[in-house]
Every structure is written in C-alpha cells, then in structure tokens.
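Incident log, structure service

09:12 report received: a user says their structure output differs between two submissions of the same chain.
09:20 pulled the input from the user's history:
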Amino acid sequence: LIASRLRVVPTDSEFITVFAVALEKSSIVLAAMQLFAEISAPGCLAQSLLGWSEQTCLAWHRIFRRYTYLFVGIIFFAILTGELTDRVKWDALHRLIFTVLQLVLCWVFWKVFDPHSGPLAGSWQEKPTHWLSRYKTLWQWSSATLPIVLALLALVGYMYTAVELTKRFAESLALCVALYLAVALGERLIGQFSARLVALLTQRGNSGKPPHHEPSDLTGVAEASIHSPDLGVDVHSLSQRVHRLVLAGAIVIVAWGLWEIWRDVAPALSFLDRIVLWQHATQPVPSGDKSSEQTVTTLVMQSVTAADLLIALLIGILTIIASRNIPAVIELVLLQRLRVDSGVRYAFAALARYVLFLIGIVVVARKLGVSWNNVQWLAAAVTVGLGFGLQEIFANFVSGLILLFERPIRVGDLVTIGQTTGTVMQIRTRATTIRDFDGKDLVIPNKQLITGEVVNWTLSDKITRLTFVVGVEYGTEPERVQDVLLQVAKNHPLVLSDPAPAVLFDGFGSWDLRFKLFVHVAALEHRLQTINELNAAIARAFAEAGIMMAFPTYVVNLRDSHGKFGTSAERFLNHDTRGDAS
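09:34 re-ran on a clean worker, output below:
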C-alpha cells in the first residue's frame, strides 16, 4: 500500500521512485513467505490437505519464521541499491548486500536439505530407496554451493551475470514449488473423488440388493461371468490414470516454463531458433493498398526451426498421454454427477479420446507448417486408395462409430452372437471384445455387429424371465402342484413380484403332467443363483407335499414265434426266472 502511494506521488527524486519499486517487490516476497509460513503451520493446510507430517510442517514453519524478515530486508536493500543509476556511488554497497544475500541463502539451503534435521528429512526417511533420497547429500552440497558461486561471480566483477542468474534460479524455484503444490493438491482431490466414488458405488450396490438375503456360493460366479461388480468401475485404475495425467502435465509445464525462463540466458537453447529445417508458404497477401493500384498476390514464407520441431514433439507426447488418461478424468467426474451405466461412460471416454487425438494432430501439423491447403490433394488420393484397399477396415471403423453413437450394444451388455453368449468388454475402432461365461474373449469385427443379427439381453431392460419345466405323475391334483410352485417362487427373495410369478399347466406328456413356472429377476447376475436355489426349493417342496416327479415308463410286449402273447414267451420267462432262482 505504501509503495503504491509513493509511486503515484509526483516527484523528481530518483531515490523515492526506486524506494517505492524496492518496497513493492520486497512486499511481494514477504507476502509469499508469510503465506508459506501459515500453510506449513502444524495443523494447518499443509498437514490437512497436502498430507505433510507434523514434524515436517514444524520444520518448515520454523525456517520461515526465523529467516523471513532477514531475507526480505536484504532483498529490499539489494533491489534499492541495484536500481539506482549512480553506479559509482552505490555499486560497492550493492555488491556487498548481494554477497550477504547469497550467504544467507547458502545457510538456509544447508538447513533445508539437511538429511537429519531438515524439513525434507522425514520424506527421505519414509522413501529411502527413492532416487532423490539416495543422493540427499549431493542435493545439500549442491544447493549450498550454488549461492557461493554466484557470490564469487559478483565479487570478481560479473555482477550483472550473477544478478540475472539469481533471478532465473528464483523464477525456476517458484515455478517448481507452485507446480508441486498444484500436483499435491490435485492428488489430494483425486483421493477425495475416489473415496466418494467408492462410497457412491457401495451405496448403489447396497440399494440394488434385496433385503434379508444371504448370498449362495454361485453369487460370485454369476457376477464374474455375467456382469462386473460395482457397476463395472475400477476406481483404483481410474485414480492411477488421472495421477499419471496430472504428473505428465506437470512435467510438460515445468519443461515449457524452464525453457521460457532460460532461453534468453543459455545460448544453446536460443540456438535452436536459428536452425531452419524447412519453410512453408502462409496465406497470400495482396500488395495493393488502393483499388486503382494493381494488386499483386505474394506468398509469405515462414520458417520451421528445430525449436518448433521440439515443441511439436512435446505436444505430440502430451496428446498421446492426454488421449489415454483424460477419459479417466471425464469418467471419474461424470460418475460423481450423473448415475449412468458403463456403456454411456465408455462412449463418452471413447469419443473424448478421438477428439483429443484429432486436436493434437491438428496442433502438431500447424506447428510444423502443415495446413489443409498443402495436403488436401494428398489426403484425397490417400482416402480413395485406402477406401479400395482397406475397405473392410474402414467399414469396421465407421461401424465402431455407429456403435458408439446409436448404442445398439454397450459395454456391459449381455449379447448373443451366433453360438456365443457373453458380456461386451470393449468397443474399439476395429473390433469389439466379448467375454463368454468361460472367460474366453471373442473378438468380433464391428461390421458384423451392425449388419448381422445380435441378441441384446439388456438393451432396454435388465429384467429377464426364467422358465422351470416340471413333470409330475398322473393322478396328481393340478391345483395342488400350481399352489406349491407359486409359493416356492414367492418365497424366493430374488424373484420379482412385478411381473408376478405364473404357473402354466402345459399339457399331458407320455408319462407325466407337465407344468411350467415363469419368474422374473431384476439383474443378469441373479440368473444362475436363482436357477440353482429355485430348483432345490422345488425339490424340497414336492417332497414335503408328497408330490412325485414323473419318470419315463415303458410297456414291453413279448410275442412268440407265432405272433401270440404268452405260451412260449411265458415259458421262456418262467424258465429264465427259475434259472435265476437256481
């Protein structure tokens, strides 16, 4: 506030103007250090949100409280003496203050990187095999030596170089610290999202289960073979993919930031801008300013340098990483907001992957000087050639897009194709993967799913019907059989009451009265368990009610050689019986 007031006051005094500048810059440093001191206080943001230990927070808080005002005071006088134009009068004092500043930094870095009592000691002890922990002594000596080298440069006459290097190192350190806090905060948010997602999926799973039911041994088999548990979501895999994306983004930002900070200082970095790889023509520019003048269209040539190639390579790598992991972010956030099935989530993720990949290709092409005007004739020729030569692949690709947009089948659906019944696991650009009940994966071209016949058991509704065929002996009362079957179905917790169970007296068989029991279950993973338990319950109920199951009965008529019943045939049977008795 004081600095802003001093800067608007009209004055001819250089000292007041420079004093206001030094006060403004040092106040920014003071605010940043006080902010870090409050963040690192025990029980505050660093411990609760970033997951720092109490010992680490206390060590950082002690360092900021101990050296903040000393450090800010030295910076204030260093800026003040460095901004004054009378170099002969103030140069010696500026050099001395700068040297003192470097000595203070040397001492602070030595304390920070102390492997025994420094703020980083706890992290190094928790991860002793990490590559940062293995070279902790090297980091301590390197960080403490760097300010000494800068101070020596200032003392031997390279004051400008020492000051510029100090500024670049400070900007690099600020960039790394800011990104570290951002990544740590992002990982914390990812953990919270994952915990909420697990709780949400658990709640949805519990709400879908019937009350007062003890699962049988076939529950796990049914869930594993027909439908993935917990709505088909691997929360740990999603978290890992989002973590990789955040880490890759941080690395790219650090690389780009360090490039921008050091490219004016390091000649090797700026030298890449002078290496011309090729040139390309940009939009034609008319040369005539007035309508009466003759307009001549000229092409503007633009150079593509090695720096552009390096940036395009980084963009390409980032595009690949983003296209693989950003769908996980979309899926994680989408699950928090909307209750959607696995097919919708997969469609969103696949479309996001295609869009990101296409955007990355366009950006890389523009960076390398490749525009649509340059390659449209080549693209047309390649498209025609590939259309004839690889028409099946293109047909499968277009069919894959149709599957994602129209969604006749979705990830997680139970489908029957030919003689194979299984769950849709993946819908790729060329083929779809279906896993049958034996765990075998069947890869089917997408074109076959569009042009062929497919039975989708779960397209509009996951409720399916089960049919039980029962045969009882002749002479059994049909009403009694129907009552027993209905009672067994109603007592089962997985059988739906709407549609209600039904029993049909199907007809008269050769040796039985045939009945059919129809029941409905809410989910596919309940089918195997319900079939197993209802069959066992029907057998017990029939045994308790005295209802006998019918067995095949055959009547054998024996004729003698003259075509008559009895006589020799009876004598043969009697003789055979006497022979057995003897």
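09:41 both user submissions now match this output. Likely a transient worker issue. Closing.
09:42 reviewer note: DSSP finds 20 helices and twelve strands in the chain. The domain at 413-452 is CATH 2.30.30.60 (SH3 type barrels.).
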